[in-house]
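Hey, can you fold this?
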Amino acid sequence: MSVHSNVKKVTTHVLQEMKNAGEKITMLTGYDYTMARIIDTAGIDVILVGDSASNVMAGHETTLPITLDQMIYHASSVVRGVNRALVVVDMPFGSYQGNSKEALSSAIRIMKESGGHAVKLEGGQEILESVSRILTAGIPVMGHLGLTPQSIYKFGTYVVRAREEDEADRLIEDVKALEAAGCFAIVLEKIPADLAARVAKEVTVPIIGIGAGGGVDGQVLVVHDMLGINNEFNPRFLRKYHNLFQEMLSSFHLYIEDVRSGDFPNEGESY
């Protein structure tokens, strides 16, 4: 928006500069215009249009059911609310695995139809071909390793990843492969803090953690979780900054009361 042209936009280059200067990167998920506007106004650096929309917006048990069209819908809603933040869009399950040609066309659709700034893919060496192909089109790619929710049926559990030495070694190889391929940043989810800190030191690109300790370059949380709107989700890595579930419930109860008692609307609220 031209009105806000004086706002310094966050780019992949800015994130790299932040890592180099030792400044922590802040990232939250966003799925709609209204919430994205508030998050952006607050000064969050990166808004992730997560496939977690499948859970928090659509009520699915996993991230697998969400479609490319639905991700584009959420992403375009977010983009319209943002002036400063970098908007990263998750590529949904089935839109890039095992077929780099399809990966490229999915990524192009996301960028063209949503106006997002980058895409995020889950996985390591098995998706390198897709990552490289997307990058050839000039589309920035963020990686995602550790607990990769799209692979939930392969692992069969959401427990902490890479506790065993061989899995930790594999993770480091994957991180380095993604870095070499040209990813501008990598999310590490639910892995031991010391391993995540080691990775952040060993690679030049920013490492964003979720449940990966404080030794990384930035943090990401699901906005509905950190606001306490999802009251039944309480993993160890989550800090709840609010109990909006309770606050919203109270507001709805008051509204019901006021409508039933005839208190709302009053004279001043009528024409």
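Oh, and this one too while you're at it.
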Amino acid sequence: MAERKGANGWSSAGGLAEAADVPRKFLEAILTQLREAGLVESRRGPAGGHRLVANAARISAADIIRAIDGPLAMTPCASATAFRACDDCVAVEECRLTNLMRRARDAVATVLEDCSLADLCRHQQPMALVDQLSSSESQ
């Protein structure tokens, strides 16, 4: 959508699905999730369609993943929004993995928040953080 705007600034779901080579119903479900998250707006009619609510450079990969899949946490106890025990956890306060899972969530969030939709559209990934992390591991 960041690249496939029609002449009026709106992109049809059919056109987007065709360009991405995905089923239209599948894409429509994703567009609904993105709209509910406030990343996309939709308009009905012949001049309607879908468009981003902000510049693609201001929408992060983390924003998109959170809109579609929910929190970036790999376990419920590491979620910043819904702190709760995992199904097999006896006591969250005593769990030895909770802190590790929170650090993993934060590391993933840092990388995904540093990559914008515009970066993805250019087929570039921000490598500065990856390079920085790689050099700090070797020390």
